[in-house]
Structure formats: C-alpha cells, structure tokens
Specification:
The complex is a heterotrimer of chains A (213), B (253) and C (252). With 213 residues, chain A is mainly alpha-helical. Chain A has 8 helices and 2 strands; from the N terminus they run ααββαααααα. A two-stranded antiparallel ribbon of chain A has the order 1-2. In chain A, strand 1 and strand 2 form a beta hairpin. The longest helix of chain A is centred in the last third of the chain and has 30 residues. Chain A starts with 9 loop residues before the first helix and ends in an 8-residue tail after the last helix. With 252 residues, chain C is an alpha/beta fold. Chain C has 9 helices and 10 strands. In chain C, helix 4 crosses helix 5. Chain C is globular, with a radius of gyration of 18 Å. Chain C starts with 8 loop residues before the first strand and ends in an 18-residue tail after the last helix. The chains are: A mainly alpha (213), B mainly alpha (253), C alpha/beta (252). At the B-C interface, helix 7, helix 8 and helix 9 of B face helix 2 and helix 3 of C.
C-alpha cells in the first residue's frame, strides 16, 4: 500500500503533503477536544508502536505469506489518533526500513489515513441500537477492516497507475486497476476477518481499549 | 533488536557535524528536487551529486548496499513490466513481446530517482542518532503531539518487538508452525495481535503514571539544544542552490 | 542530600480506605507514621494493596477516605510532589525518554529548574547510582541491572525527602542485587521498600509493616515480625532463611 520514492511526479508528492496538513490539523483538533488529551498521548503513542509490531506478524497465504495493513483496526481502536499514528508509522518505515517513501509520505498518509478515520466511524456504528455486544463488534469490526483496506487499495492503484511516468494508454490503465484490485479481494476478506477477530478479543479481554468507539 | 539506520551515528564527517535541523531541510529539498526531474539528461548529474553526498558522509558502501537490497526488489517488478506494457515506439522484441522506448525511459527515470532519493535519505537519517533527528524535527516546528508520540513510540518499539518474537517462539515450541492458512490459524494470530495490543495498553497506563509522578504536564522550559554556525548555514544554502539547479535545469530541458 | 535523623514526621497516613468501582476493600483503615531517616519495609502477599498505597502517597490515585500528609503538607490527587519519589516495580515503565540523560532530567525539568541546575542534578543522581557513563544511552540498550539503577536515579534527581521502592530487587542478578542493597543501606534519607525479597528487607530496614488483604496486620521490629512463624505463614509469607534456626550447621 505504500508508493515508493521516485515513481510519482513532484507535483503529486507535494499535493499529498498539502492534503495531509488539513487532515492532520483536523485530527489534532479533535484530539484536543477530548476529555483527557494529555493522558491519551502515551496510550496512543505506545499503541502506535504496538500496531507497527502487529503488522509484522506473518499471515500465511500460500504460496507465500503477507503482512496485513490493519489501518481499519488502527482506526477502530485509536479514533482520531489514527492519523498521527499512521504518519509516525510511515515515517518509521521509510527511515528505518526504506519501505514506503520520504517524498511520498504525504500521499501514503492520505491513502492509509483517510480510510482509517472512516473505519473509526464505521466501527462506532456498532453502538447503534444499544450497547455493543460481541456479535455487533465482530460485524462492524469486519466491515471496518474490509472497507479501509478496500479504499486504500483503490486509492493506491489509481494514484500509482495514473501518475506513473510512462505512456500507458487509458485502456491498459483501467484494466490494470481492475485486475490488481480484484486480485486483492481475498486479502481484503482476510483483513476484515482478522480485524473482526481482534476486536472481539479486545471486547472480551480489555473493553477499555475500545472505549473510544 | 536493532533497527539498522542508527548503525553509524557517530562517525566524523561534515554531514555528521552539520546542524541536524539544517541537514533535514537541505537534504529534503534536494530529495524533492530529484523527484521533480523528468529529463533524462539530468540523471547523470543526479547520480553524481548523490555519490558526492554519500562519499562526504563517510558511510560505508556496504551500508548502502544492504539497505537498498530489499527496496530494489520493487524496482525489479517495474523494470520487468513497464517496457512491455507502456509506450508506442517499439525498439526491440523478445518473441511476441515488444519493448517500447517510452517504457524504457520511464524505467530509467524511476530507477535512478528511486535509488538517488533513497541514498540521500540514508545519509539524512544515518548520520546521526535517530532520536536526535526526532528532536530536530520538533525544533523545526513539528507539533509537540507528533514528536512526543514519535519519541515514545520509538522507545517502546523494541520492547514490543521483542515480545512478539518471544511469543512467536513460544507458539512454535507448542507446535504452531503457521505455514498453512486456516481460519483457526488466523484466529490464533489475531489473538496474538490482540494480546500485544492489550499488553501495550497496560504498559502505557503505567508509563503515564510514571510520567505524572515526575511532573508531566507541568511547565517546562523550552529546550534549545541545537545551534547552527556559519558553516552550517552556508552548507544549507549550497545544497539549496544545487537543488534549484536541478529544478531549473529540468524546466529548461 | 542527607536528612538529619530528627523527630520530623515525613509521612502520615490516617484512616485510609481505597476501593475500585469493581473491587471494594482494596485498602482498609490504614494508619501509618514514618519518621525522618526511617527505613521501613512493607511485606505481604501479592494483591495486598502495596502498590495502590504507594500511588496514593504520590498523588496519582485518590483515596476513597482518609488523609495522607507528606512533610507537613496534605497530598492531593493530581499534585506534583517531587518530595516523594516512587521507584516502580518495572523500570521499563519509568524509562520513557530517548536517552538516560533525558530520563533523569525529566523530573528536574518539570520542577522548573534552570538548565544548569538540571545538569547538576543529572550528574549527581547518575553518580549516586554508579551509572555516570550511561548518560548517552537509550533505555533499551541497558541491562536489567542498569535499568534498575537508572530508574532509581530518575527519582533521586528530584532530591525527594521520601523515596518509595516497589519490588526493587525483582529480576536482578546477584551482583546487581548486591549493588542495590549497598545503595539502599548507604542512603541517608527516609525510605519505604515493598519487597518479596525478605533477606533484603532484613539487611536494609529498621522497621517492618506486614500488609495483607488491604489491612496492616503487624508493624514493628523486623526480627520480631519476620521471625514469627505463625504470623508469617498465616499471611502467605515464610521466614527468611537468616531467621531460621539452624539444626544442621553450615559446613566450613
């Protein structure tokens, strides 16, 4: 889901950074409106590190294994902290592992961060019609996970394929996007299921973690 | 657990000695200038500038080679696909597949930009302790929330990573190989992920308590630990000029 | 900073009760008076309420009832009282800054001290625990013993009048444990130590309080309390080896 350096034209990279600023500003504003922002910063920070580590878990998907993106889960658990968390996560990945990109940090933040924030709202819907039980948590957890990865995948493919500096004609671009998106559908289901399983686990073991949603 | 970017933070080179804030600004500007380049003629100049920057940094070549190994796999995919898929002018053919000129040009552009940007990035973050870099970003005006979060996240990343490693070992010793996909296997991994989150959450509650015992939230005097001298500033101006040269050059060509 | 062994009352806890919403009676009717220079050991089974008590003394938790006074001033929830320091059970919970130097400086900085004074405190604290050479290191590069010593330094830098140690010898190897005991024995201030390491308590403390089920069960001379078989076994403890009468003498 990360667009590397060198692929996108500078204008798109700049636009990515420019778009990240208002989203970050909005997230920080929402965070400061919370009851106890001071107390939640250490929690969000350490959870950011935790999510980073969780994404290192190998999920066997024959013939190989994949790492899940989990931005839906991130949104469900962290709420508006998800956007700063993703900014930090992307920065760490680019600097420590040369994965992702420095010029494309803004673009990648939008690709991953905006769907995460959307997932937060989707997950919160589990409270509709009364206190969320395990079934509702699982269902909305699934959709939170699925929708964020689906949206991120589409954004990623569209941006990558439209802006790659080559004379790809429209037909090739469109079919590339469709095929690659389709290839990711099984992964989307795995992410959705994984997200549901984790949220159910959290609801059972430490519901406080999900208190924000 | 070592995250390798920190491997050579204390060498003695002009880049190690450069004020970290100005280094960040200067090299970032250069990186963006590289990403602006669209003309093939500027590519050799890019490679030259990158090489000079890397040599001045005194970072060993092995460092660059190891760090670039995995990201270059992505390059391979692009190199293999684009010349066949994109463009109209055919320059060569392998059997039924045509190699197009536009595709080759694109591949060259992407590859060189990618490698140059990543190498300069290695210099930017590899010539000082990672934590100094974060402090420099705070000094440059990054919101306190982001830098505080980043510092804390970095601090506990290692512990949590170690925990994951121990848990995976423990699971392996109890027969969970995790090589084939199964829904039950996925659930086990989901529980592993969940327990990492719960443990981290509980740790964060204790960290918060430790912070308030030592006065977190009470007025702190601003920290001004960076001081730029004339050489630092001149170096920044120099780099910006070079970057501007690339941009202007690309517009003219 | 040496404190004269005067008759100054450093800590007074009266009528303290504490309950969690889902867990009543965590602490009940706690009365405790600690004088300057005393070294008090707090023993008792896990879950007796020791850590909860400490957090209230530091102003992190609010008692359900009762009063806590430190050095003459009542402790209010949310106060920053650098006169009381709490060394946590897990050093990793307390070392959250990028480097050892930053961690030790954290408290003094929040006290509003000048940059120079902060540096003085950092040097002093690190040298008191014998870790001056670790100043530039990040916390995750330290060994368990080093982390323990640094986590003490971060508290000493605030020059507290009362230092509370929560299970300080847990996870330490023999050498580090010995260093810790020497440090505790040579400290001139008032200290409170909660520990399962009863030998450590014997070596360091002049007074022992036995806490069980949220209540003070015994308070007095370490040998009397820890040497009392019935008392110790009744509250999930064992006599420390040093107090067990030897029927078979040690060889050599």
């Amino acid at each position: 889901m990360h667009i590397p350096d060198g692929v996108l034209p500078a204008a798109v990279c700049g636009a990515g950074y420019a778009a990240s600023v208002p989203v970050a500003w909005y997230s920080l504003r929402k965070i400061n409106q919370e009851q106890n922002p001071r107390e939640n910063i250490p929690k969000a920070a350490i959870l950011t590190a935790a999510f980073f580590v969780v994404s290192w878990i190998h999920i066997p998907v024959p013939p190989t294994s994949v790492h899940l993106v989990l931005n839906g889960l991130l949104g469900a658990v962290l709420g508006y902290y998800a956007f700063p968390a993703i900014l930090i996560g992307l920065f760490f990945q680019a600097v420590m592992f040369q994965h992702g990109g420095l010029t494309t940090l803004g673009v990648n933040a939008i690709i991953m961060g905006v769907p995460a924030l959307l997932s937060y709202h989707i997950f919160r819907m589990r409270n509709i019609g009364g206190e969320a039980d395990r079934i509702k948590t699982g269902i909305f957890g699934f959709f939170a996970g699925l929708s964020s990865i689906a949206l991120s995948t589409v954004l990623f493919l569209v941006i990558l394929i439209y802006f790659i500096p080559a004379g790809l004609d429209v037909e090739v671009e469109r079919s590339a996007i469709y095929t690659l998106a389709l290839a990711h559908v099984p992964l989307m289901f795995i992410e959705g299921t994984f997200t549901a399983m984790v949220t159910i686990f959290l609801q059972r073991v430490r519901p406080l973690l999900l208190a924000r949603s | 657990m070592r995250f390798g970017i920190d491997q050579y933070p204390y060498l003695d080179s002009p880049l190690h000695r450069w004020d970290p804030r100005l280094k960040l600004i200067g090299l970032m500007v250069l990186i963006f200038a590289f990403s602006f380049v669209g003309s093939l003629y500027l590519l050799p100049a890019m490679v030259l500038v990158t090489a000079i920057v890397y040599v001045i940094s005194r970072l060993p070549v092995s460092f660059m080679l190891t760090r670039l190994r995995y990201p270059s796999i992505f390059l391979l995919v692009v190199v293999l696909l684009l010349p066949f898929l994109s463009g109209e002018t055919v320059v060569a053919s392998i059997g039924p597949l045509d190699i197009h000129r536009e595709g080759l040009v694109a591949v060259l552009l992407i590859a060189i930009r990618f490698l140059c940007i990543l190498t300069v990035g290695l210099v930017m973050f590899g010539t000082g302790p990672f934590l100094t870099t974060l402090k420099a970003m705070r000094a440059l005006g990054l919101p306190a929330i982001l830098t505080d979060m980043a510092l804390l996240a970095f601090r506990y990343l290692h512990e949590i990573g170690d925990y994951l490693h121990r848990m995976e070992t423990a699971m392996k010793l109890r027969g969970f190989r995790g090589r084939r996909f199964s829904w039950r296997g996925l659930k086990v991994l989901a529980w592993l992920g969940g327990s990492i989150l719960v443990r981290s959450y509980e740790r964060s509650e204790w960290v918060y308590k430790a912070m308030i015992v030592r006065g977190y939230g009470h007025a702190r005097p601003p920290e001004d630990e960076f001081r730029a001298d004339t050489t630092d500033i001149l170096a920044l101006l120099g780099i910006i000029l070079v970057a501007a040269g690339f941009v202007v050059g690309d517009i003219l060509l | 900073m040496p404190i004269e062994k005067t008759n100054e009352l450093v800590l007074e806890i009266s009528g303290l009760h504490f309950s969690y919403p889902d867990k009543p009676g965590v602490l009940e009717a706690i009365n405790l008076r600690v004088m300057a220079g005393e070294r008090l050991g707090l023993i008792g089974p896990n879950g007796a309420g020791k850590t909860t008590l400490f957090l209230q003394v530091c102003g992190v938790l609010r008692p359900s009832a009762g009063e806590i006074t430190v050095l003459g001033k009542p402790v209010l929830n949310g106060d920053f009282r650098p006169e009381v320091g709490l060394v946590f059970q897990n050093p990793d919970d307390q070392l959250f800054c990028p480097s050892v130097h930053d961690d030790v400086a954290f408290g003094p900085r929040n006290m509003g001290l000048s940059k120079e004074e902060v540096e003085v405190r950092v040097k002093e604290a690190l040298s008191a625990v014998g870790c001056s050479e670790l100043a530039g290191r990040p916390a995750h590069h330290l060994s368990e013993g080093e982390k323990r010593m640094v986590s003490i330094a971060v508290i000493l830098a605030m020059r507290p009048g009362l230092v509370i140690y929560d299970e300080p010898s847990a996870n330490l190897d023999i050498r580090s444990r010995r260093r810790l005991i020497s440090l505790l024995q040579s400290s001139a201030g008032t200290i409170l130590i909660a520990s399962h390491d009863l030998e450590l308590i014997l070596e360091v403390c002049s007074r022992v309080v036995l806490l069980d089920g949220g209540r003070v069960v015994a308070d007095g001379n370490p040998h009397d309390i820890m040497g009392n078989d019935d008392l110790m076994t009744a509250h999930g403890q064992e006599k420390p080896h040093s107090l067990v009468p030897h029927r078979i003498p040690h060889q050599g």
